[in-house]
Recover the amino acids of this structure.
């Protein structure tokens, strides 16, 4: 299905106040799903999110790392479910009616991540995202942070799912062992 926007011919090439074209301004916006872990806001690219489902019974997997909650059967597909809070070295809160499983695509893997609540879908202008160099120097334990966005009166930590969910590295465990 195709949608059409009534844009005057050549409007995509009109310059904005910053001198970029309208098309460049639109492409310079990051589309994200914002969610909460504890009191903090985090986000992942909307293109990585397959769906958001209510919390459901999870089958534990013996001898799995502490951040692996287990697996769920989602419409015939068995999907591993991780506590994103524990994966990132944060305290995991008890399940509430707001708790959700965000089903994401991280590389070739489909994984469910438990979040305390899904807040919104947001369009964050690239100029509002900072890549804090001090965090980058902290090494692999913080490699999952793409940047920090300013949104209204809050900060949103943007997460690289492939880095954060990579089974080869352990961001949360690396932080706890320091």
């Amino acid at each position: 299905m195709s949608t059409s926007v009534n844009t005057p011919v050549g409007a995509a090439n009109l310059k904005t106040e910053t001198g970029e074209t309208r098309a460049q301004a639109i492409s310079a916006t990051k589309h994200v799903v914002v969610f909460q872990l504890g009191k903090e806001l985090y986000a992942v690219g909307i293109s990585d999110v397959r769906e958001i489902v209510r919390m459901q019974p999870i089958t534990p997997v013996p001898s799995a790392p502490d951040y692996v909650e287990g697996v769920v059967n989602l419409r015939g597909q068995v999907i591993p479910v991780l506590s994103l809070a524990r994966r990132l070295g944060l305290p995991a809160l008890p399940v509430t009616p707001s708790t959700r499983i965000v089903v994401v695509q991280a590389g070739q893997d489909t994984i469910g991540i438990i979040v305390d609540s899904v807040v919104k879908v947001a369009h964050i202008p690239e100029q509002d995202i900072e890549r804090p160099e001090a965090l980058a120097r902290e090494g692999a334990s913080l490699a999952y942070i793409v940047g920090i966005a300013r949104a209204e009166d809050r900060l949103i930590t943007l997460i690289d799912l492939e880095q954060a969910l990579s089974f080869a590295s352990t961001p949360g465990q690396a932080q706890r062992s320091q």
